[in-house]
Amino acid sequence: MVKTLESPAFLFPGQGSQYPKMALDFLEKGDAALTELFAAASSVMGQDMKVLLEQADAQTLKRTDIAQVALTLANLAAASFLRRCGIVPRVVAGFSLGEYAALESAGVISTDDCFSLVKKRGQVMQDAVDSLNSGDSKPSGMAAVMGLSPDQVEALVAQWTEAGLSGLYCANFNSPLQTVVSGTAAALQAAEERFKEAGAKRVIPLKVAGPFHSPLMAQAAELFGPALAEVQFNDPLIPLYSNVSGKLIRSASEAKALALKHITAAVRWTAEEEAIALAGGIDGVLEAGPGNVLRGMWKESGTSIPCYAAGTVADIEALPAIINY
Q1: In the annotation, is 96 catalytic?
Q2: pLDDT single digits (tens) 144-174
Q3: Measured between alpha carbons, how far is residue 92 from residues 13, 22, 57, 104, 193 in Å?
Q4: I need a surface site. Which of 32, 81, 267, 300 has the fewest CB within 10 A?
Q5: What's the confidence (pLDDT) of residue 6?
Q6: Is CATH 3.30.70.250 the right assignment for the domain spanning 140-205?
Q7: Of 80, 96, 105, 214, which is the active-site residue?
């Protein structure tokens, strides 16, 4: 007997999961809600998002000022199609940029404000990265540390910082097997050998534009603050978890404060996953957006709760919850 998902958690992926032509299969279904979603994103971006997603190559979609709106659109399109199929979230969370789709899905911000915020966020982050990396042949960035526990990586970074190594920060606590650090080029180069000497199996430079989720992005946070202040935040309508704290967000004021910290604070995804699993009340997890990164991390968390792909029409039609729609 195939079990039907009745109380799923929606997890929304972050930047790096985007790919050309993503989400267009949802639009092709001709649903009014999806048409309106694409129109809202197009209005904010000042260009037709359907055309952009049809024509943009992978390199174009990597630009932070484009990727943030495009990926948020893909995440919200997946969530909209899931609802059309009768699947509604019991709990929501998002990884890095994906937290904005979670905020919208929980009723904390409107769809229009969601797109406006991620557009501004993408612009100020791109500007900050351009400023950090100007004239530097080896720009700042991020690296994944494999084979050390998150606690070990955090302790080593703190130890080395105290001993004089500047510009290195824990950025993403992805899983028990992987922690991502952000830093200047010099700090990342120095840390690579040190992590290996401490027992790391691999240290993998990531193909990202800059040192995200670290104090090195302070310029972006400063510029984002005024835009954030103008947006109305509401109390969550369903359980919503924070990257910054790894815990439930309980109020509108807390959600807004965390959204500002989000740019420079680490993503505590392992804590979020644990909190979601331990809270109970869910019978499955859906990666509502492009790619399969979050499914891999969820599996590594050790929970027995299953996680399914839900980033395309075909993925969603194959879910055990779908009979017809």
Answers
A1: yes
A2: 999 999 999 999 999 999 999 999 999 999 9
A3: 11, 21, 30, 10, 38
A4: 32
A5: 84
A6: yes
A7: 96
